[in-house]
Design goal:
This protein has 187 residues and is mostly helical. The longest helix has 33 residues.
């Protein structure tokens, strides 16, 4: 059985650089077309935001030591920023804060919960990312208290799932966390 040849790092870097240059050229062409057509909608900015998002994901994924929990955290933050930017560029109706970010938070927390269940022995590797996602998950509290959103039901669900996920993972992995703290800090 033949296995596919692995790309050398030099060739991989050349391919990545060529694709990056092609993306920049496409972004410039889209911007020029948008400017020349005198469109009231800045659709090129939305397309370019998508291109930037794809490159953030690709560059992070190419890294050989990618921790899947770190990838979940990065995607959670990057997609939230992208959807908020898109909402802002099309007139900011608030759907990004009211619907998109809570759904992203719910998905990130469910993903982290599954990671904890599947590999609870390695939970300590995910703990810092879980904490960052939990802190990020409290963002809807700010939106609710500043009245930036009108219907907060989905935000309350996202906050509840985040807190529940955090407490369940602490309960499931408390012994491992305690052992890791003792081992690292010689307590």
């Amino acid at each position: 059985m033949l296995y596919p040849q692995k790309l050398s790092s030099k060739r991989q870097n050349i391919i990545t650089l060529n694709l990056l240059i092609a993306s920049i050229i496409v972004a410039i062409i889209l911007t020029l077309i948008n400017k020349l057509t005198n469109s009231n909608v800045h659709w090129a900015a939305l397309s370019n935001a998508g291109i930037i998002y794809v490159w953030v994901t690709v560059i992070y994924s190419i890294n050989k030591n990618v921790n899947i929990a770190g990838h979940v955290m990065l995607q959670c933050i990057a997609i939230s920023i992208l959807t908020t930017y898109i909402d802002y560029k099309i007139g900011f109706s608030g759907w990004s804060l009211q619907i998109s970010i809570p759904i992203i938070i719910i998905i990130a927390n469910i993903t982290m919960f599954i990671l904890t269940i599947v590999s609870y022995k390695k939970y300590i590797r995910y703990a810092i990312y879980q904490l960052v996602i939990c802190i990020f998950s409290m963002l809807p509290v700010y939106f609710i208290t500043t009245h930036m959103i009108s219907n907060a039901i989905l935000s309350y669900v996202a906050i509840g799932i985040s807190l529940l996920n955090f407490f369940v993972t602490i309960v499931l992995c408390a012994k491992d966390i305690k052992d890791a703290v003792v081992r690292k800090f010689h307590v």
